[in-house]
Write a structure and sequence with these properties.
Layout (H helix, E strand, L loop, with lengths): L3 H16 L5 H13 L13 E7 L6 E7 L3 E3 L13 E5 L7 E4 L1 E3 L2 E2 L8 E3 L2 E7 L7 E8 L4 E2 L3 E4 L13 E4 L6 H12 L4 E4 L19 H4 L11 H14 L4 E3 L16 H6 L15 E5 L2 E5 L11 H11 L8 E5 L16 H13 L4 E4 L5 E4 L2 E2 L2 E2 L5 E5 L56 E5 L3 E7 L4 E8 L9 E6 L11 H8 L1
Parallel strand pairs: 13-14, 14-15, 17-18, 18-19, 19-23
Antiparallel strand pairs: 1-2, 2-9, 3-8, 4-5, 4-10, 6-9, 7-8, 10-11, 10-12, 13-25, 16-17, 20-23, 20-24, 21-22, 25-26, 26-27
The chain binds 2-acetamido-2-deoxy-beta-D-glucopyranose (7 copies) and fe (ii) ion.
């Protein structure tokens, strides 16, 4: 038995089919008339056609997530959530385009963004679908289409390539790394540069759509703190997420996208809820990586283990995230994934004035753990500019510390970060530096080195190797067990020009890493 609501929407898809056969237009017109009289025409003919289609990785090469949205979002004063059960979540896929022999079924949901305040409009999403494909071969192109076959609402056929098998000789060719993207002309420039670089995987380090720079009536602002002063809650305009999802589909329906949350994803709403759009719209390999949260998870891409961390939830030693991170790092076998890369949104080592030492409590809580497991590279966003560090640990140059790279320069509508904290008059008052949402105060003056006794350096800090305020993105290319090429591309340059480039070289012989007790036991036997 078909659900009657699905039946209602079947009719337009019969039309769509008929559109391919001009001789049946007459019949089509008749049907339109009949349905119109009975008031059952949905807002568009494509009402349940998949949109905002994206691919993301599961924890290993043999599995990916396909996500999409069907049905219309609503915003206003009298909205009614769609019933996710009315449309099924099916992906047909295979290695040959004309015979998509496999089928996977997933789950669907809708979410709301509600404001019980006079004058603010509520939002309810379209139906969001997430389907996990399993049993995939490594480094293989798969074709897929998604949707609900029972209402003739399947997407076009797209394709993606799975990650290579994990091993010390096996890496994705190019991983694109970008942060603070938004949806502006500058975002368009960033994404077209990324597409030109033909990445195998895209990491997005938080601050995704900047929907919270818009009032619920759609009016935008360039400044987070000024526009919303008189409203009872920091509202946001959720349709920006849908616009963003539509814009990104061209890239992320083919190239897997992995996202970690930024402060612009907080999006507080009624009932003390936050991060609802972020947690609902993306698929995360949380469960697959032993995490119970969408805010932190890990995955392998060839011989690289990526750890995605949450800066806006508890991170200290007693927190679930910290315990999960210890377990996750302990389970990494560096003979299989020699490279260990960590990402989160606000940088620990940034020398810009904007957000200077803002995430210091997180650094104090987690730096030692990451260092003891030999994290090679850290990618961050948040500061709207580019900066690459020397290897550093606890503010001292250290050949075994990670290289920290900030690429918060994706092109959002807020201002670019320009001033450095070490320039005259730019050193912020320490008490002004903590982020309100993160809480805590840990940014004390330096106790050693050239900036001893002070809060800021008086020149570019030793930890800072290269910094420049331009929009762009980076490409991370691991060549082998010990060498990776990092390249920063600037939007104002022609496609293949390089803004900054360096080999990041691991030295496992001089930087022995903490290995799990279990692995030691095996080695000893
Ligand atoms: C939005 O939803 C909240 C919570 O359900 C409700 O209190 C409020 O009246 C709604 N606002 C509008 C404008 O419909
Ligand atoms: C952002 O885009 C606008 C419009 O294309 C352009 O004029 C401007 O230079 C860009 N800004 C940066 C920093 O790239
Ligand atoms: C949206 O609301 C703001 C603040 O009330 C107002 O200034 C603006 O004109 C409104 N915009 C639209 C499109 O209604
Ligand atoms: C860790 O965080 C929790 C909750 O935020 C807090 O209660 C606790 O005091 C913190 N512990 C440390 C050691 O900072
Ligand atoms: C980091 O350096 C500070 C200042 O020298 C010191 O107090 C602290 O114990 C160091 N932390 C670690 C984890 O080594
Ligand atoms: C910390 O450094 C700032 C200047 O960078 C200085 O004004 C302040 O007095 C210092 N605080 C302490 C406690 O030394
Ligand atoms: C690793 O790759 C780098 C850069 O391509 C190359 O120079 C180096 O010889 C390679 N090392 C090994 C052990 O293959
Ligand atoms: Fe941010």
């Amino acid at each position: 038995m078909r659900n009657p609501q699905v039946m209602d929407f079947l009719v337009p898809y019969v039309f769509t089919l008929f559109l391919s056969f001009p001789c049946l237009i007459l019949l089509l017109v008749n049907l339109v008339f009949l349905v119109a009289v009975h008031g059952r025409i949905p807002t568009t003919l494509e009402g349940f056609e998949p949109e905002q289609i994206s691919v993301s990785l599961s924890a290993n090469h043999d599995s990916v997530w396909i996500s999409w949205i069907t049905g219309e979002f609503q915003i206003g004063y009298d909205i009614k959530a769609l019933d996710p059960k009315t449309v099924s979540s099916v992906v047909r896929y295979g290695m040959v385009k004309c015979t998509l022999e496999h089928e996977a079924i997933g789950h669907s949901l809708v979410y709301n963004q509600l404001y019980p305040f006079e004058g603010l409009q509520n939002y309810t999403s379209g139906i969001i679908h997430h389907v996990r494909l399993t049993g995939l071969n490594p480094s293989t192109v798969y074709y897929y289409q998604c949707g609900d076959p029972s209402v003739q609402a399947m997407s076009d056929i797209f394709s993606f390539r799975t990650m290579p098998v994990s091993g010390p000789w096996s890496y994705p060719d190019r991983v694109a790394v970008v942060g603070d993207l938004g949806l502006t002309y500058n975002t368009t420039a960033t994404i077209s540069h990324i597409i030109n670089n033909k990445p195998d995987l895209v990491l997005l380090l938080g601050d995704v759509t900047y929907a919270n720079l818009y009032l619920t009536n759609g009016t935008g602002s360039d400044c987070y703190s000024c526009t919303f002063a008189e409203t009872p809650i920091h509202e946001c305009y959720q349709p920006r997420w849908d616009y963003w999802g539509r814009f990104m589909q061209n890239l992320v329906s083919k190239v897997p996208l992995m996202v970690v949350e930024g402060n612009h994803e907080i999006e507080q709403q009624a009932g003390n809820k936050a991060f609802v759009a972020y947690s609902s719209r993306f698929a995360f390999p949380s469960e697959e990586s032993g995490s119970s949260s969408t805010f932190y998870y890990s995955f392998n891409a060839g011989g690289i283990h990526f750890v995605m961390l949450g800066a806006y939830i508890a991170y200290n030693k007693t927190a679930d995230q910290y315990k999960w991170l210890e377990r996750d790092l302990d389970s990494v076998d560096r003979s299989i994934t020699p490279w260990l890369v960590a990402t989160w949104h606000p940088p620990w080592y940034s020398s810009y004035k904007a957000h200077y030492r803002e995430a210091e409590c997180m650094r104090v809580a987690m730096e030692e753990l990451l260092y003891s497991y030999g994290v090679d590279v850290v990618f961050n966003g948040h500061v709207h500019a580019y900066e690459r560090s020397n290897r550093v640990y606890n503010y001292s140059l250290d050949p075994c510390g990670p290289v920290y790279i900030t690429v918060g320069d994706g092109g959002n509508r807020e201002k670019m970060a320009i001033g450095f904290a070490d320039e005259p008059g730019n050193c912020p008052d320490p008490l002004s530096t903590p982020d309100e949402y993160m809480g805590g105060f840990c940014a004390t003056n330096f106790t050693f080195g050239p900036a001893m006794g002070k809060f800021c350096w008086e020149r570019q800090p030793d930890y800072s190797a290269f910094r420049e305020s331009s929009f762009g993105h980076g490409i991370f290319e691991v060549k082998n067990e010990t060498w990776a090429l990092w390249t920063w591309y600037r939007n104002q340059d022609s496609y293949n020009d390089v803004g900054d480039q360096i080999y990041i070289v691991r030295q496992p012989d001089i930087c022995p890493v903490h290995q799990s007790a279990k692995q030691h036991c095996f080695a000893a036997i």
